[in-house]
Amino acid sequence: MRFCIECSTILQYQGGTLKCPLCAYVYPIDKQIVTIEHILRKVLDPIFSEDDMKTMPQTSNVRCPACLHSDAYFHEMKILNELSIILYICSNVRCRKHWKS
Ligand SMILES: [Zn+2]
Ligand SMILES: [Zn+2]
C-alpha cells in the first residue's frame, strides 16, 4: 500500500498506475509489479473447499505459522513465466491457515 506524497491519501491502482483519488498525483510504477501484486493478492485469499484439499498433495516439510502443525496441503501456482509460488494450507482441521512460500 502506498500513499500520496501530496495529500497522504491511499493511492489506488488504475490502468496500470497508482493514482491519488483526491489530487492529480500519479505514482510511477512498473506495470509488471502491479500485475504481480494483483495476482498475489488473489492468491493470498484463496478459496479451497474441503473437497479440493482431498485432491491436494501434502508435505511434512513445513510448519504452520499459526498452530505449529507439521504438515500441510500445498499447491504450486505459476503466476508469471519465471515465477511460481507455493501455497500451503494447514492440514489441522481446526486451523486451516493459508500461507505462501
Ligand atoms: Zn493526493
Ligand atoms: Zn495450523
From TrEMBL:
GO biological process: termination of RNA polymerase III transcription
MF (Gene Ontology): DNA-directed RNA polymerase activity; nucleic acid binding; zinc ion binding
Protein name: TFIIS-type domain-containing protein
Organism the protein comes from: Zostera marina (Eelgrass)
A GO cellular component entry from the record: RNA polymerase III complex
PROSITE patterns for this protein: ZF_TFIIS_2
Matches recorded under InterPro entries: Rpa12/Rpb9/Rpc10/TFS (IPR012164), Zn_ribbon_RPB9 (IPR001529), Znf_TFIIS (IPR001222)
Signal peptide limits: none
Keywords: Metal-binding, Zinc, Zinc-finger
SMART domains in UniProt: RPOL9 (SM00661)
Domain TFIIS-type per the UniProt entry, residue ranges: 60-100
Keyword Zinc assigned: yes
